[in-house]
């Protein structure tokens, strides 16, 4: 492989509808679970919400012009389910379709490949109220019908589709840690809802293929590879258990069509394993075989140690941004995530480990033998505006290391389609409001005009794209 990324490699950036669009009550849009969750006291950081967000709904042309200026090859965005189907199913809102047609056309006109995410966490409230949303298998049919509406509307324009964004995260935060809607804490329910997301993924993949569309489709999993804290057998075993109940658990059911045997038996022994029917296995295996690529969102790695049966349980995240608030977390009898002295940490105590991305890409490629698309990677930070400039050298360094890791993985045989940073502009962080910034473009949320200001990292990534990564690899 040469010292540059291939010509066709998709250097991109990403966002999600609720986090950028705003206009939450405009043009016939229905309520999502997030429209209501943010109105419950104490559920979000300082009561922040996405009612206006970055106002991308009204300013997408301005944002796309900035993407074109950067030279972006791909823009990954999500569609708001309730803009298209305000009640979750049935009546189609034409104004919603029109908005996404305009966005897609604007991207294509500027030479930017649209990467469409069908679901990025904004479930219609009607479906949550009617049958519990992801807790019921009824959602499989409703979600598949919604996906078919999008395929029919945009299938001739969009060549890259992501069915679900981080199903392991929205089910964990919603049903195990109570940090996202619907705010429950039940390990069995988490495993059940995750299983239902896998079934929904498989049904949608099948529908796309049966529709004969000319494009590639997969789902994106949040992937956190792990290292054993020592050579001790107990820590090595903790790592193995972590993979069988976390990494391989979340990936295998989507991309092999079955769960790891040891992990399933362990959860079954604990009385919390999801029900898997013969029909489930058949559609899961079909969906796995038909998936064109594996999307992964990578932010950090984990260091793993032995956790006794009476050991530490799952703990809340650092949402304050006060560095040094790292908390051990784990599942008693399985594993414990501990501080890694070999890496740096962000202000939110997320480990910074570029080589962990290489490790993740190689082990995923070897296990599933499919192309991989990095749909998110980035660093959240307290960016400061100084005389209309933002000097974010830390972001440049972070991205440089991770882009270099991508190139190294390709030299080791990984078929990598593209790399999307999170995010293009600053946006609403689900748990951290507007204080945690990820973008190349600074947005002053205190100014009603929401001005867009290019950070130093904007020029850096522009150079990455222009040189096909040469400025990161050399």
Structure described in brief:
GO terms for molecular function: beta-glucosidase activity. The protein has 474 residues and is of the alpha/beta class. The protein has 16 helices and 16 strands.
Describe it for me?
This is Glycoside hydrolase family 1 protein. It comes from Proteiniclasticum aestuarii. InterPro entries: GH, GH_1_N_CS, Glyco_hydro_1, Glyco_hydro_1_AS. One of its GO terms (cellular component) is cytosol. The active site is at residue 376. With 474 residues, the protein is α/β, with parallel strands linked by helices. The chain has a single domain, classed as TIM Barrel (Alpha-Beta Barrel). Helices cover 41% and strands 15% of the residues. It has helices at 17-20, 33-37, 56-70, 81-84, 94-109, 125-131, 138-154, 167-175, 187-210, 233-255, 261-269, 278-290, 354-368, 393-411, 456-466, 470-473, and strands at 10-14, 74-78, 113-119, 160-165, 216-222, 226-228, 294-297, 302-305, 329-331, 335-338, 344-345, 351-352, 372-376, 416-422, 441-443, 452-454. Strands 1-2-3-4-5-7-13-14 form an eight-stranded parallel beta barrel, surrounded by six helices. A four-stranded mixed β-sheet has the order 6-8-10-9. A hairpin with a 5-residue loop joins strand 11 and strand 12 (351-352). The longest helix is centred in the middle third of the chain and has 24 residues, at 187-210. It is globular and about 55 Å long. The model has no long low-confidence stretch (mean pLDDT 96).
């Amino acid at each position: 492989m040469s010292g540059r990324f291939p010509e066709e490699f998709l250097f991109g950036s990403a966002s999600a509808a609720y986090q950028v669009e705003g206009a939450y009550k405009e043009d016939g849009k229905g309520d999502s679970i997030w429209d209501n969750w943010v109105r419950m006291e104490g559920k979000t950081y300082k009561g922040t919400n996405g009612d206006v967000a970055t106002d991308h709904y009204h300013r997408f042309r301005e944002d796309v012009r900035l993407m074109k200026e950067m030279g972006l090859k791909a823009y990954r965005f999500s569609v708001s389910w309730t803009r298209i189907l305000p009640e979750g199913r049935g009546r189609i809102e034409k104004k919603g379709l029109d908005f996404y047609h305009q966005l897609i056309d604007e991207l294509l006109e500027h030479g930017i490949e649209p990467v469409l995410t069908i679901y990025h966490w904004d479930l219609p409230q009607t479906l949550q109220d009617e049958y519990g949303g992801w807790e019921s298998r009824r959602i499989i049919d409703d979600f598949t019908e919604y996906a078919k509406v999008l395929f029919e509307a945009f299938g001739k324009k969009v060549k890259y589709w992501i069915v679900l964004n981080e199903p392991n995260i929205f089910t964990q935060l919603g049903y195990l840690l109570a940090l996202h809607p619907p705010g429950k804490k039940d390990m069995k329910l988490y495993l059940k809802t995750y299983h239902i997301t896998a079934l929904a993924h498989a049904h949608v993949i099948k529908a796309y293929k049966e529709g004969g569309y000319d494009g590639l489709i997969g789902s994106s999993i949040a992937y956190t590879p792990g290292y054993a804290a020592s050579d001790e057998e107990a820590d090595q075993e903790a790592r193995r258990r972590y993979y069988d109940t976390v990494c391989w658990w979340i990936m295998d059911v989507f991309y092999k069509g079955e769960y790891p045997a040891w992990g399933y038996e362990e959860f079954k022994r604990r009385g919390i394993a999801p029900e898997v029917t013969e029909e489930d296995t058949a559609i899961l295996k079909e969906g796995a075989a038909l998936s064109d690529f594996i999307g992964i969102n990578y932010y950090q790695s984990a260091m793993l140690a032995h956790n006794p049966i009476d050991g530490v349980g799952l703990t809340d995240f650092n949402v304050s941004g006060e560095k040094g608030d790292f908390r051990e977390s784990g599942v008693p009898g399985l594993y414990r995530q501990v501080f890694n002295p070999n890496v740096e940490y962000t202000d939110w105590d997320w480990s910074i480990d570029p080589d962990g991305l290489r490790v993740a890409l190689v082990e995923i490629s070897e296990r599933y033998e499919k192309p991989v698309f990095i749909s998110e990677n980035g660093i959240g930070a307290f960016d400061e505006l100084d005389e209309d400039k933002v000097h974010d050298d830390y972001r440049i360094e972070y991205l440089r290391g991770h882009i270099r890791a991508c190139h190294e993985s390709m030299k080791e045989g990984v078929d990598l389609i593209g790399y999307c940073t999170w995010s293009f502009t600053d946006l609403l962080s689900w748990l951290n409001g507007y204080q945690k910034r990820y973008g190349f473009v600074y947005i002053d949320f205190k100014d009603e005009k929401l001005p867009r200001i290019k950070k130093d990292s904007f020029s850096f990534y522009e150079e990455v794209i222009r040189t096909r990564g040469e400025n990161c690899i050399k």
